Amino acid sequence: MVRSLVRIARLLHSTPRMASLESAKKAAAYKAIDEYVQNNTVVGIGSGSTVVHAVRRLAERVEEEGLSVVCVPTSFQARQLIIEYNLTLGDLETYPQLDCAIDGADEVDAEMNLIKGGGGCLLQEKIIASCAKRLIIIADYTKSSQKFGEHYKKGIPIEVVPMAYVPIQHKIEKTYGGIVKIRMAVAKAGPVITDNGNFILDWHFPVDMTDWNKINEEISLIPGVIETGLFISMAEKAFFGMQDGSIKEQILHICKI
């Protein structure tokens, strides 16, 4: 936690672009916390750099307004943030339904579909999102796209059972095209290991892919796939902090037949 805050402080003093990005993240996070977190509620706390700002703002409101809020984390990082800021820590065993979840995203398309899992927490993030009455996304302006792959170039994360990663690689590449790579760790030899003891594959998909709901369902059915980083029609609203300090809001539109 302390290292995360130090890293953010360094970013703020590095380059104008980095400072702009952090300011945008902070603006989006503060807006979401102020608008969606109320007294006597249970809140899912997401993962990633933007969520650090959200937790800080939540802690400020708890101290200033005396809010009673229980926080359920999506990852080890989120849990440490909750503890560091002296917020009330909860879990799904005690609180199986959440009032809302506040989380980041790697990319949000024009239909409010999300790519998540760049930080490796996609499974727990999706579980928390599925237990929340509403999922609210906070991000900077670089995460807003018309279609997947427009800005985010690291592929769609897929969490898999370690013994099955090679067959899953071959299956996805043969069925849909593109390239599937196992995510390798930076500070250790070998692959990234998730909080759940699994591997992560990153699928660099062809640019002409469109029916993400169908693709998500099909990949999820491959034996050995634990979860995908495709969050289809799960988010109710997204707040994007913009370069000029404003907030862009995007909502999910569901057509009823």
UniProtKB/TrEMBL annotation:
GO biological process: D-ribose metabolic process; pentose-phosphate shunt, non-oxidative branch
Keywords, in A-Z order: Isomerase
Record Pfam families: Rib_5-P_isom_A
Coiled-coil ranges per UniProt: none
GO cellular component: cytoplasm
Enzyme Commission code(s) on record: 5.3.1.6
Pathway, per record: Carbohydrate degradation; pentose phosphate pathway; D-ribose 5-phosphate from D-ribulose 5-phosphate (non-oxidative stage): step 1/1
Gene3D superfamilies, per the entry: 3.30.70.260, 3.40.50.1360
Name the UniProt record assigns to this protein: ribose-5-phosphate isomerase
Organism of this sequence: Pogonomyrmex barbatus (red harvester ant)
Taxonomic classification: Eukaryota, Metazoa, Ecdysozoa, Arthropoda, Hexapoda
Encoding gene, per UniProt annotation: LOC105422166
